[in-house]
Amino acid sequence: MARIAIDMDNVMADLTSHMIHLYEQKHGVRVSMESLNGHPDGGGFPIEGETHAFIREAGFFRDLPVMPDSQEVIKALMEKHEVFIVSAATEFPLSLKEKIDWLEEHFPYISWKNIVLCGSKTIVDADYMIDDHDKNLRYFKGERLLFTAPHNIYLTDYKRVNSWKEVAEYFQLTPAMV
């Protein structure tokens, strides 16, 4: 049984599409996902820095859409492996309760004992880490899986997974499990 650490934002929760939606609501401008490619997380919008204000607002993390297939694949992973949800959440104190509430709603089968809200992920000890940020994967000692997001599209240092279906294939989950 392997231990798998899974990030939340832009891995389980679609933070980027939520930012696109909020930006369009506020400014009436629809930004394409592709136009954000290669920009730092939250960057690439016509008004730079605007999205950084969004993540500091109450309710931002509570309303994130769920990444397609993540619920089924994570549940299947939990049947074969020890799974921990690991989020560098303390930078945004409002996110702590919101992330727990979000997980309870969308992933009710994940125990509170398997949720780690932290600052730096350098302390994480697992066999695998699924994350969208180089800063979290760089020092990780286990197998590193980079979950595709616009800000990491040009990184080539890690094994890349583009979807939760690819995560299921990587861990050899059968269709009956997913």
From TrEMBL:
InterPro entries attached to this UniProt entry: 5'(3')-deoxyribonucleotidase, HAD-like_sf, HAD_sf
Example GO molecular function: 5'-nucleotidase activity
Superkingdom of origin organism: Bacteria
Active site: 7, 9
One GO BP: pyrimidine deoxyribonucleotide catabolic process
Pfam families: NT5C
SUPFAM superfamilies attached to this UniProt entry: HAD-like
Family matches, as Gene3D superfamilies: Deoxyribonucleotidase, domain 2, HAD superfamily/HAD-like
Family affiliation: Belongs to the 5'(3')-deoxyribonucleotidase family.
Protein name: 5'(3')-deoxyribonucleotidase
